[in-house]
Write a structure and sequence with these properties.
The complex is a heterodimer of chains A (239) and B (299). Chain A is an alpha/beta fold. Chain A has 2 domains: 158 residues, 3-Layer(aba) Sandwich (Rossmann fold), CATH 3.40.50; 73 residues, no CATH class. Chain A has 11 helices and 10 strands. Chain B has 12 helices and 2 strands. The relative contact order of chain B is 0.21. The chains are: A alpha/beta (239), B mainly alpha (299). The structure holds adenosine-5'-diphosphate (ADP) and magnesium ion.
């Protein structure tokens, strides 16, 4: 469970988030939608410690993580698949996955069955299995996205943040990605999903938040938001 | 032809030393986009600490060869510690302040301090470093090679292969490579990238200290031995590329061989010139933009 309360953050003097509050309950999927530049990526960056919040609290599993560094937050179980994939391009697919499990392999997080989890990732993303020895930089965009997601999952996270997993992918691949998100949801993964495909995102989510200029405009059950005329007009292309 | 071969062979061991120092520049540049301009002083300190250690051991009735072997881990540990200090005092504050040039001034300043310190402890004169192997040359088809020159080449290659092996095989090595690839993303893996950067400085100075005790028995040791070596290796690192391990070895060999050729065919008085001319050429072809672009941190 992840609770964000009155979070303020920005870049230097430029404030981007003006006090936002979001709740991601255990085992639920929450969609964060909004137009380009609304502050969705900034929100995720503040959550995972890539960006230091100015004020507000972020509670993960009962502990306040606001202001901790990203490696500390990751070790506490928050995985972030960042915008633009950011795979380790000079390393093979296999090493990228192992690095996702870095805290488990180095004793700062319960180890569990790392090899078994790698096999489960190969089951979830069969293309990665074929390309396990290939350098991540030589993968296609869709494959890199799958690798970024699998790498984040290798943490065995309490909460998974996904930043536009469908960005730049062909419609067929977008569909594939959403099928995988659906499967993760069925496996009870707690997720905060940032998406440009608002309709598809709300479809797989339990709750949704609509962001505008660094504020939360509306929020509610995903189904209700999907049927909200104002949301439809602004984000769902009017249907 | 015989003479030419002889010069090339002699150039190889010098070149490998440049290669190892340049390799040290790469280690820190890849993780932090900064480097230690006191790398030559790290080499010098390693050699002098090695000298004191080996003399102490010889004083304990240990043979020179074994004294040299026992001295190695002491020098490597010292180098690692010295590199961590440089990172902590000189580089981390500059990176925290997002200063683009602060680390340059700081590492140069620390280098000067280390040199002064060495002059006060070991004096200003060049000192003889006991050679662990016979100094008489071996002859291969008329080409003479000192046993220590072979040790230099083998030691340099072993060090670089060791680091490469660590990077490829261990999860900590992979964490170093990940940090070089994308520091923010590495942080998201739970990797403490500050610690990785300290580690890369430790490894870098350790390489320099190792180069110091490799080269010391074939040259002389002293507080001033590092400056020129550090500068020339910098030229090698820029030419060879700040990211390619193979590049610095080749760059080092080219420079080492050019120098012995210059020393023979022109004058030993000019043997430092090719390296420094190379440095000038490099700096004029790739002026301040050298670090400029890489050092601008993406927020
Ligand atoms: N590195 C940065 N430095 C300064 N401003 C930034 C930076 N990244 C994003 N911004 C600004 O923050 C705002 C929100 O951006 P972002 O969080 O990326 O939006 P979204 O992900 O919703 O498209 C934008 O106005 C953008 O220009
Ligand atoms: Mg974004």
């Amino acid at each position: 469970m992840l609770i964000i309360d009155n979070l303020v953050a920005g870049y230097g003097k430029v404030k981007v988030l003006h006090g936002i509050s979001i709740m991601v309950p255990e085992g639920k999927v929450v969609a964060l939608i909004g137009s380009n530049g609304a502050g969705k990526t900034t929100t995720l960056r503040a959550l995972s410690g890539m960006l230091k919040p100015e004020s507000g609290s972020i509670t993960l599993g009962g502990k306040d993580i606001a202001g901790l560094t990203s490696h500390e937050i990751t070790r506490m179980g928050l995985a972030h698949s960042p915008e633009g994939r950011r795979v380790f391009s000079t390393l093979p697919v296999m090493d990228n996955l192992l690095l996702g499990a870095f805290p488990r392999l180095t004793g700062s997080r319960h180890k569990g069955d790392v090899d078994g989890d790698i096999n489960r990732m190969f089951e979830l993303f069969p293309r990665l299995k074929e390309r396990r020895t290939q350098l991540a930089g030589t993968l296609s965009g869709g494959e890199q996205q799958m690798l970024a997601m699998a790498r984040a999952l290798m943490l065995n996270p309490e909460v998974l943040l996904l930043d536009e997993p469908s960005m730049g992918l062909s419609p067929r691949l977008v569909e594939e990605i959403f099928v995988i998100i659906e499967r993760l949801k069925k496996a009870n993964m707690t997720m905060l999903l940032v998406e440009q495909f608002a309709a598809a995102a709300l479809e797989v989510s339990d709750f949704g938040y609509v962001m505008e200029n660094g504020h939360i405009r509306t929020s509610g059950e995903a189904r209700a938001l999907k049927n909200d005329p104002a949301v439809q007009a602004a984000y769902l292309g009017g249907h | 032809m015989q003479i030419l071969m002889q010069l090339i062979v002699s150039g190889i061991s010098v070149g490998m030393i440049y290669g190892v120092i340049a390799f040290g520049y790469q280690l820190t540049f890849s993780t932090s986009k900064t480097l230690n301009f006191g790398q030559g002083e790290a080499l010098m300190l390693g050699a002098l600490v090695g000298l004191t250690t080996i003399n102490f051991l010889i004083g304990q009735q240990i043979g020179t060869f074994w004294a040299y072997v026992i001295m190695l881990p002491v020098v490597l540990a010292f180098g690692a510690l010295q590199g961590s200090v440089v990172e902590w005092l000189g580089v981390r504050p500059a990176m925290r302040a997002k200063s683009e040039a602060g680390w340059i001034m700081a590492t140069i300043a620390l280098g000067i301090i280390f040199k002064n310190l060495a002059e006060n402890i070991w004096g200003r004169d060049a000192l003889k470093f006991p050679s662990p192997l016979p100094e008489a040359s071996l002859s291969f088809g008329g080409i003479r090679i000192q046993p220590m020159e072979i040790v230099v080449v083998v030691g340099a290659i072993a060090l670089m292969l060791g680091v490469e092996f660590f990077n490829r095989r261990s999860i900590y090595g992979k964490a170093v490579v990940a940090t070089s690839n994308d520091r923010d993303a590495a942080g998201l893996m739970g990797i403490n990238t500050n610690r990785i950067i300290t580690f890369s400085y430790a490894l870098s100075s350790m390489s320099a200290a190792f180069a110091g005790v490799l080269v010391a028995p074939v040259t002389l040791t002293g507080a001033t031995m590092g400056a020129v070596l550090g500068l020339k290796a910098f030229a090698v690192a820029i030419i060879g590329g700040l990211s390619s391990g193979m590049g610095v070895v080749i760059g080092g060999l080219i420079l080492g061989i050019t120098e012995t050729l210059t020393g023979y065919y022109i004058s030993t008085g000019y043997k430092d010139v090719p390296g420094l001319v190379l440095l000038l050429i490099v700096l004029s072809l790739k002026p301040s933009g050298l670090f400029g672009k890489a050092a601008i941190k993406k927020v």
